[in-house]
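Weekly puzzle thread! Below is a chain. First person to post its structure in C-alpha coordinate form gets bragging rights.
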Amino acid sequence: MAEHGIDDFLQAKRKAAERLGMHDVAVLPKNVEIEAALRAHQRLFGGDSHHHSLKEQRRVALDAMRLLGEFHPRLVGSVLTGTATPHSDINLHLFADGSESVALRLMDLGVPHSFYERRVKMDAERSVSCPVLRIEAGGRTIDATIFPVDGIRQSPYSPVDGRPMRRADAHEVAELVDAV
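Winning reply:
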Protein backbone atom coordinates (compact mmCIF):
# COMPACT_ATOMS: atom_id res chain seq x y z
CA MET A 1 0.00 0.00 0.00
CA ALA A 2 2.82 2.38 0.88
CA GLU A 3 4.96 1.65 -2.16
CA HIS A 4 2.45 0.89 -4.91
CA GLY A 5 -0.38 3.28 -4.07
CA ILE A 6 -2.99 0.59 -3.43
CA ASP A 7 -5.70 2.08 -1.25
CA ASP A 8 -8.12 -0.85 -1.18
CA PHE A 9 -7.44 -3.11 1.79
CA LEU A 10 -8.91 -6.24 0.18
CA GLN A 11 -6.91 -5.74 -3.00
CA ALA A 12 -3.72 -5.24 -0.97
CA LYS A 13 -4.42 -8.38 1.07
CA ARG A 14 -5.01 -10.46 -2.04
CA LYS A 15 -1.85 -9.19 -3.69
CA ALA A 16 0.23 -9.93 -0.59
CA ALA A 17 -1.34 -13.38 -0.17
CA GLU A 18 -0.64 -14.18 -3.81
CA ARG A 19 3.01 -13.14 -3.47
CA LEU A 20 3.37 -15.34 -0.39
CA GLY A 21 1.53 -18.27 -1.95
CA MET A 22 -1.18 -18.20 0.74
CA HIS A 23 -4.70 -19.38 0.05
CA ASP A 24 -6.28 -19.31 3.52
CA VAL A 25 -7.93 -15.90 3.88
CA ALA A 26 -8.49 -16.52 7.61
CA VAL A 27 -4.82 -15.83 8.32
CA LEU A 28 -4.77 -12.45 6.56
CA PRO A 29 -4.44 -9.39 8.83
CA LYS A 30 -7.39 -7.19 9.72
CA ASN A 31 -7.69 -3.74 8.13
CA VAL A 32 -6.91 -2.09 11.48
CA GLU A 33 -3.66 -4.08 11.70
CA ILE A 34 -2.74 -3.09 8.16
CA GLU A 35 -3.38 0.59 8.90
CA ALA A 36 -1.22 0.38 12.03
CA ALA A 37 1.59 -1.25 10.02
CA LEU A 38 1.26 1.42 7.33
CA ARG A 39 1.49 4.14 9.97
CA ALA A 40 4.60 2.50 11.47
CA HIS A 41 6.17 2.15 8.01
CA GLN A 42 5.60 5.83 7.30
CA ARG A 43 7.07 6.80 10.68
CA LEU A 44 10.17 4.70 10.06
CA PHE A 45 10.76 5.32 6.37
CA GLY A 46 8.67 8.37 5.39
CA GLY A 47 10.26 11.06 7.49
CA ASP A 48 10.17 14.59 6.09
CA SER A 49 8.96 13.49 2.66
CA HIS A 50 5.84 11.91 4.20
CA HIS A 51 5.14 15.04 6.28
CA HIS A 52 5.64 17.27 3.24
CA SER A 53 3.40 15.14 1.01
CA LEU A 54 0.67 14.92 3.68
CA LYS A 55 0.77 18.67 4.30
CA GLU A 56 0.45 19.32 0.55
CA GLN A 57 -2.49 16.92 0.25
CA ARG A 58 -4.23 18.59 3.19
CA ARG A 59 -3.56 22.04 1.71
CA VAL A 60 -5.12 20.99 -1.62
CA ALA A 61 -8.06 19.49 0.30
CA LEU A 62 -8.51 22.73 2.24
CA ASP A 63 -8.48 24.80 -0.97
CA ALA A 64 -11.16 22.53 -2.46
CA MET A 65 -13.19 22.69 0.74
CA ARG A 66 -13.12 26.48 0.69
CA LEU A 67 -14.12 26.47 -2.98
CA LEU A 68 -17.06 24.18 -2.22
CA GLY A 69 -17.92 25.68 1.16
CA GLU A 70 -21.63 26.00 0.45
CA PHE A 71 -21.84 22.17 0.46
CA HIS A 72 -20.39 21.84 4.00
CA PRO A 73 -17.38 19.73 2.91
CA ARG A 74 -15.69 17.30 5.25
CA LEU A 75 -12.31 15.65 4.73
CA VAL A 76 -12.28 11.88 5.29
CA GLY A 77 -9.95 8.96 4.75
CA SER A 78 -6.20 8.59 4.69
CA VAL A 79 -5.40 12.28 4.13
CA LEU A 80 -7.28 13.05 7.34
CA THR A 81 -5.91 10.13 9.37
CA GLY A 82 -2.34 10.76 8.23
CA THR A 83 -1.80 7.41 6.50
CA ALA A 84 -1.96 8.84 2.96
CA THR A 85 0.80 7.95 0.55
CA PRO A 86 1.89 10.25 -2.28
CA HIS A 87 -0.44 8.19 -4.51
CA SER A 88 -3.55 8.62 -2.32
CA ASP A 89 -6.61 10.45 -3.56
CA ILE A 90 -8.13 13.18 -1.41
CA ASN A 91 -11.62 12.20 -0.26
CA LEU A 92 -14.29 14.70 0.65
CA HIS A 93 -17.92 14.36 1.70
CA LEU A 94 -20.27 17.05 0.38
CA PHE A 95 -23.90 17.63 1.35
CA ALA A 96 -26.41 18.87 -1.23
CA ASP A 97 -29.96 18.42 -2.44
CA GLY A 98 -28.51 16.76 -5.52
CA SER A 99 -25.28 16.20 -7.37
CA GLU A 100 -26.44 18.63 -10.05
CA SER A 101 -26.04 21.62 -7.74
CA VAL A 102 -22.42 20.68 -7.06
CA ALA A 103 -21.76 20.08 -10.77
CA LEU A 104 -23.29 23.47 -11.64
CA ARG A 105 -21.08 25.19 -9.07
CA LEU A 106 -18.00 23.54 -10.57
CA MET A 107 -19.08 24.52 -14.09
CA ASP A 108 -19.58 28.13 -12.92
CA LEU A 109 -16.03 28.04 -11.57
CA GLY A 110 -14.70 26.47 -14.77
CA VAL A 111 -13.52 23.34 -12.96
CA PRO A 112 -13.51 20.22 -15.15
CA HIS A 113 -14.97 17.18 -13.43
CA SER A 114 -16.36 13.72 -14.01
CA PHE A 115 -18.99 11.61 -12.26
CA TYR A 116 -19.11 8.05 -11.07
CA GLU A 117 -20.96 6.18 -8.32
CA ARG A 118 -19.65 4.58 -5.14
CA ARG A 119 -21.29 2.15 -2.75
CA VAL A 120 -21.09 3.47 0.80
CA LYS A 121 -21.81 1.35 3.85
CA MET A 122 -24.05 3.38 6.16
CA ASP A 123 -24.48 0.75 8.89
CA ALA A 124 -24.09 -2.98 9.41
CA GLU A 125 -27.02 -3.81 7.13
CA ARG A 126 -27.33 -0.95 4.67
CA SER A 127 -25.22 0.29 1.79
CA VAL A 128 -26.24 3.10 -0.53
CA SER A 129 -25.05 4.24 -3.90
CA CYS A 130 -23.78 7.84 -3.88
CA PRO A 131 -22.65 10.09 -6.72
CA VAL A 132 -18.99 11.07 -6.68
CA LEU A 133 -17.46 14.06 -8.45
CA ARG A 134 -13.83 13.62 -9.42
CA ILE A 135 -11.71 16.71 -9.97
CA GLU A 136 -8.00 17.32 -10.41
CA ALA A 137 -6.45 20.12 -8.37
CA GLY A 138 -2.87 20.92 -7.49
CA GLY A 139 -1.70 17.76 -9.23
CA ARG A 140 -3.96 15.67 -6.96
CA THR A 141 -7.18 13.76 -7.53
CA ILE A 142 -10.10 14.76 -5.35
CA ASP A 143 -13.10 12.45 -5.03
CA ALA A 144 -16.08 14.25 -3.52
CA THR A 145 -18.88 11.90 -2.48
CA ILE A 146 -22.21 13.68 -2.42
CA PHE A 147 -24.68 12.89 0.37
CA PRO A 148 -28.14 14.36 0.99
CA VAL A 149 -28.13 17.50 3.13
CA ASP A 150 -29.21 15.57 6.23
CA GLY A 151 -26.40 13.04 5.59
CA ILE A 152 -24.11 15.29 7.60
CA ARG A 153 -25.67 13.78 10.73
CA GLN A 154 -24.68 10.18 9.99
CA SER A 155 -21.18 9.32 8.91
CA PRO A 156 -20.79 6.15 6.83
CA TYR A 157 -18.84 3.22 8.18
CA SER A 158 -15.07 3.23 7.77
CA PRO A 159 -13.61 0.42 5.67
CA VAL A 160 -10.76 0.27 8.19
CA ASP A 161 -12.55 -0.45 11.45
CA GLY A 162 -16.28 -0.62 10.63
CA ARG A 163 -17.05 2.33 12.91
CA PRO A 164 -18.48 5.68 11.79
CA MET A 165 -15.92 7.46 9.63
CA ARG A 166 -14.09 10.42 11.13
CA ARG A 167 -14.85 13.68 9.31
CA ALA A 168 -13.12 17.05 9.58
CA ASP A 169 -14.46 20.44 8.54
CA ALA A 170 -12.36 23.18 6.95
CA HIS A 171 -11.43 24.69 10.32
CA GLU A 172 -10.05 21.35 11.57
CA VAL A 173 -8.17 20.76 8.30
CA ALA A 174 -6.63 24.24 8.51
CA GLU A 175 -5.35 23.34 11.98
CA LEU A 176 -3.85 20.12 10.59
CA VAL A 177 -2.14 22.02 7.78
CA ASP A 178 -0.61 24.40 10.29
CA ALA A 179 0.43 21.57 12.63
CA VAL A 180 2.25 19.29 10.14
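Puzzle host: Confirmed. Bonus trivia for everyone else. The longest helix spans residues 31-67.
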